[in-house]
Each structure stands twice: as structure tokens, then as C-alpha cells.
Amino acid sequence: MAEERKISMAVIRRLPRYYRYLGELLEKGVDKISSSQLSERMNVTASQIRQDLNNFGGFGQQGYGYNVDYLHKEISKILGLDQNYKMIIVGVGNLGQALANYNSFEKRGFKLEGLFDVNPRLIGMSIRGLEVQDIDKMEIFVKENNIDIAILTLPRIRVKPVAENLASWGIKGLWNFSAVDLKLPETVQVENVHLSHSLMTLAYKIKDSKEEQ
Amino acid sequence: MAEERKISMAVIRRLPRYYRYLGELLEKGVDKISSSQLSERMNVTASQIRQDLNNFGGFGQQGYGYNVDYLHKEISKILGLDQNYKMIIVGVGNLGQALANYNSFEKRGFKLEGLFDVNPRLIGMSIRGLEVQDIDKMEIFVKENNIDIAILTLPRIRVKPVAENLASWGIKGLWNFSAVDLKLPETVQVENVHLSHSLMTLAYKIKDSKEEQ
Fold first, then answer.
1. Which of A 46-85 lie inside 8 A of B, CB atoms?
2. With bands split at pLDDT 50, 70 and 90, how would you rate the model's confidence at A60?
3. Using one digit for the tens of pLDDT, what is the confidence trace for A61-82?
4. Distance between CA A128 and CA A208 in Å, rounded?
5. Can you tell me the distance from the alpha carbon of B37 to that of B42, in angstroms, rounded to the nearest whole number?
6. If you count residue pairs, one on A and one on B, with CB atoms under 8 Å apart, how many are there?
7. Strands B32-33 and A189-192, how do they pair?
8. If contacts are CB pairs under 8 Å, which of residues 115-154 in chain A contact chain B?
9. Are B97 and B188 in the same domain?
């Protein structure tokens, strides 16, 4: 059971990986696993795993290990994956189209409901059965369909006003792919994907490994 | 000067954001900034900023603040952005095409040199002046052109053997967009972008904020 204690974001950010591994084990028909087996698979120390999972209390049993299905379900609840989320994509350029074509999000309850752009050449285009709509129609759409999440894949310069509008229309979460840090009311949660930051981190790792040689 | 002390990855992962902010300040002609001003802009505590930047020793001067240009350059060196990297994209589906169309990577020294795919419908297609090549030609290309980084945007099931080949051909870094954790020799550095993990984290934040209301 998820306890009401505050869990650090560092732990939370590791949970999707546990969730994914446990899901893969379930698919293979594995019903229990020890922290040391999980450790070997995930390349994380067994002690880290026990510490992380102890945050949620009592999942493992000494000498038995973890019940894979139970743990998978509990992590799913903790992450809020036992609910469904309605999403729209704002900005249907290359990246927006790439994300629109992912079907793995839907399996986890993230349902794509709408696509919006300002570009007349994109409006009317259809991706996986959804037609790209004019961004002018977004306000009514978001309100009428109770959209939870907007994926922001639009040019950096356009992000701020769009995000502020979406926040005022009651959206709950923004998945932001632009290199802009948004300051918004607390009613809206933001998760940033800064691709260039990740690439710079890779550069650091390469440089760092050379220095060690 | 970058000291030879080992800096934690948590600090390293914050550096690209400093780098980006400082770059924006430079563009605006700002030549010095205090940690409290930087703090307000970046939404990070001033003490965190001082702590982070102290890792590299002596950038700030009491009562003067940080020299923006100097700090920007130093962070660039620490991250290894004072060098150039030759990249290829392996898997030119939607996401691969999106990344191929980014030109902001190039400005930071990450130069795209080749595109590879197995799909005959994609081979021969041209993106920003680069022709998609048959993956069979990748080994010679990587070796002859001393490619540093491969961006892996290919289906999950194909990633492992491709990554192992690239590692054996002397590639230095893999930027991996598939939900597969790679175990490779220490000569190759891996940076994962797990988009679904990020989306799950957003779900958690939404759930968590609801519980607090």
C-alpha cells in the first residue's frame, strides 16, 4: 500500500524503471523475484532496490523475495498509472508527429485525444485517426473533453503563452519538450524533456571517460 | 579551471541548464550576474547555485557575482562542449527524422554526419542534405569517418545487437531513445532518454498534487 509519507523525487524517478522491468518479468511469466536477482537485471545494487521499495512499505518478504505482480500493481498505483489521462499534442512538427505515432503510451493509460498546430499545411492532416486541428479550436476542445495533459512540441518562442493558456483552461500537466523553463500556477504540473541537456551529459561522460584512461 | 575532483552526476546533470541560461544572458549582453539574480531566473536557490559552481572552484567573486562569459566557457569545457562530436542517427523513423531536423545540436558542436536505416522506403531519402544509407554500410562509415556518437532511434528489439556492433567499431557514446538498458564495454558511454519514464513521472506529479489539495 502506498503510504502517505512524502517520497523524494529521486526515488520517484527510479520507479518507472522498476515498473518497466517488473512488466517485462510478468510478460515472461515470472511471479517472484529477489532483490538480488532484480539487482543483477537492472544493474542497481540490491541494497538500493530494497531501500527504494521500502519507501512504500512491506512489499518484500525475507527469504521469499518480491511478488512481481503485486509490486508492479503497487508501483503503478504510486505513479498514478491506475488512472487514465487524456492528452493533446500542441505542435505537430517532426517531434510532435513522432510522439503521436507512439502507441506504447496508450497501453499505460495515456490516451491521445487531439492534435493542434498553427500551420495551415498541417491542419487537416491525419495521424493515427486524429486530424490536426487549428490551435484556435484548442480552448473549447480542452474544456469540453477535460484534457489532462498537453504535450508541448512547438517552437520555443511560442511555448510560454500557450502553456499559460492551457493552465488557465484547467489542464493538469504539461509535458514540455522545449528548452524553456515554465513558471506556472501550482495547479499545473510540468515535466520537462530537455533533449539538448541529455546530449550535453553524454558529451560529459565521453570526456570524463577519456580523462580516466 | 576544471579541477580533477570527481563531481557527482547530480551536479553534472544540472550544468546544461546553467549553460543554457548563461548563453541566454550572453545573447542579451549581460556580462555579470549574482547568484541571487541567477537564482531568481532559474528557480533554484542561490545557495544551491553557489554550491554547484563551487565544485569547479573560484568562479564567483564576493560582492561582484559571476562573470557570465567566463562561467559559460568553463561550464562548456567541463561538459566537453569545447570539442566537436561526429554523430550518426540509426533508425530514421519519426523520432530519428525529428532529431535529424534539429539544428541546435550543431551549434554546440554535435555534427550530424550520417543517417542509417534498414527500411528500403527510407534509404535514399534526404534530410537536411544527408541521404539515408543502408545500415549495411554503417560499419565502414563509422570507422572511416571516426564517428563519436550514435543516436539510437530504432525499434527496441533491434537496439541491442546494433549497440554492440557500434561499441566494437569504436564508437564513444550512444544516445539511446529505446526502453532498453544496454550493458556494454566501458569504452562506450550510454545516455538514455526514456520518454515513457518521463511521462510516468508527470502522471505521478499530477496524482501527488491532487492528493495535496
1. 78-81, 83, 85
2. low
3. 666 788 899 889 989 999 999 9
4. 43
5. 9
6. 172
7. unpaired
8. 148-149
9. yes
**Domain total of chain B:** 2
Predicted confidence (pLDDT) per residue in B196-209, tens digit: 999 999 999 999 88
List the domain range (segments joined by +) for residue A66: 9-78
**A202 in reach of chain B (CB within 8 A):** yes
Q: Which of A97, A148, A199 sits opposite B110 (nearest CB)?
A: A199
Helix axes A9-27, A68-79, angle to 10 degrees: 140
How much is the pTM? 0.89
| A20 to B197: CB separation less than 8 angstroms, yes or no | yes
| Residue A2 to chain B, least CA–CA distance (Å) | 12
The C-alpha of A56 sits at a distance from chain B's nearest C-alpha, in angstroms, of: 14
Q: Is the pLDDT of residue B2 over 60?
A: no
pLDDT at A61: 63
Long-range contacts of B20-26 (CB under 8 A, 24+ apart): B20/A179, B20/A196, B20/A197, B22/B68, B22/B71, B22/B72, B22/B75, B23/B72, B25/B68, B26/B68, B26/B69, B26/B72
SS (H, E, C) B134-178: EHHHHHHHHHHCCCCEEEECCCHHHHHHHHHHHHHCCCCEEEECC
Query: What pLDDT score was predicted for residue B212?
Result: 72
**Same structural domain for residues A137 and A89?**
yes
CB contact under 8 A, A175 and B202: yes
Contact A108 B17 (CB under 8 A): no
Closest CA to A88 of A105, A67, A66: A105
As beta bridge partners, residue B114 has B88
Grade residue A149 by pLDDT with cuts at 50, 70 and 90: very high
Please tell me which of the candidates B108, B191, B204 has its beta carbon nearest to residue A79: B204
Q: Find where cell 532484480 sits.
A: A38
Predicted-complex ipTM score? 0.91
Where residue B182 sits, what CATH number does that domain have? 3.40.50.720
**B69, B31 in Cβ contact below 8 A?**
yes
In a domain, B204, yes or no: no
